[in-house]
Amino acid sequence: MNVFDYTAFEDSMSEPEISQMLDEFYDHSRMGFAYQPWSQYGPRLFSGKYLNVALEPNGLAVRRTINSPATGKDQKIVKIFAFGGSTTFGSGVPDAHTWPSYLSQILNDRARNENLDIRVEVTNYGRVGFYPTQELHLLLDILRTGQRPELIIFLEGVNIGRDDDTPNLTPSYHRIINEAQLGSDRQWQSLPMVRLAGAIAARSEPKATPDADRPDTRVQTEQLVERFQQFRSSVLAISDLYGTQPVFFLQPDGHYNYPDHLYGSGKSPSSPRARAQKKEFYAGFPKDSGFVDLTGLFAEWGDRKAIMDAAHYTPNFSKFVAQKIADRINLAELKPVKQEKVIATGIPRKQYP
Question: What gap in Å lies between CA 341 and CA 351, rounded to an integer?
Fold first, then answer.
């Protein structure tokens, strides 16, 4: 059972504030997703006190990140794009309490303390339900709109995609495409002769046996690890082409090793089998995988609530994750991306109702 745990917020928000925030998330969820080419979907625009989703100049929607205001005209802007699933988007926490917002705060404080004449701008491209293959397509899409960040951060692990390495809404899109193509032909399908011809054709076709082309109906651990490894290799190649730098993290995963007694219900919402599969998955990564392993952060956090529902980080734990990510970033060594002669491949995207 998935229980929302108010007590996990500790002193970061009052219960009335949490209730108002949850109302905003509920209203936003009722709007559903917006279609987005290549990566399938994205968040719809929303304006609230705690939850805000707005358009970037390229026409893509992003969760608001609280970035420090500019303090001087000559400051160099360091752009960082954050990718991941709902834990990056910040489901269940205000704009200011997502790990991308905390990361911006931490890095800008560091820049001031080290007298670096730079200002960090973090853009939150987290998407609810997204997994690495989707993010690969989203990254390429963003870069083709003319965006050139100095650093790209991927926080991965909770979402692994479907067994066939497709996004979660793929079956729904199959139905939508079929309906779009068959729309004007449906009247013909109702004619008796057309139905008879279809029935005869169906009888004459060989019957496919379930999973005839697959030796196992469940994706294997080595396939999942290979999925993540190929994702990283592809991002590295794309980043080299566009002159940006990526960094990859395996995230703290509430479906893997979060202590049962810290859940609001007192037990994990994931089955023992699902947890065992996640354990096998993370253990399958080689030491030289290129992913920074943050899956042990729950233990480092201590006997303290880090998740408020089934998987999403509390404000305080989000800040803790942001600090661990910031520890891997050397602002002085980030090379500015050359912006001259950057031309988008098309006009900014239109947001359809």
Answer: 27
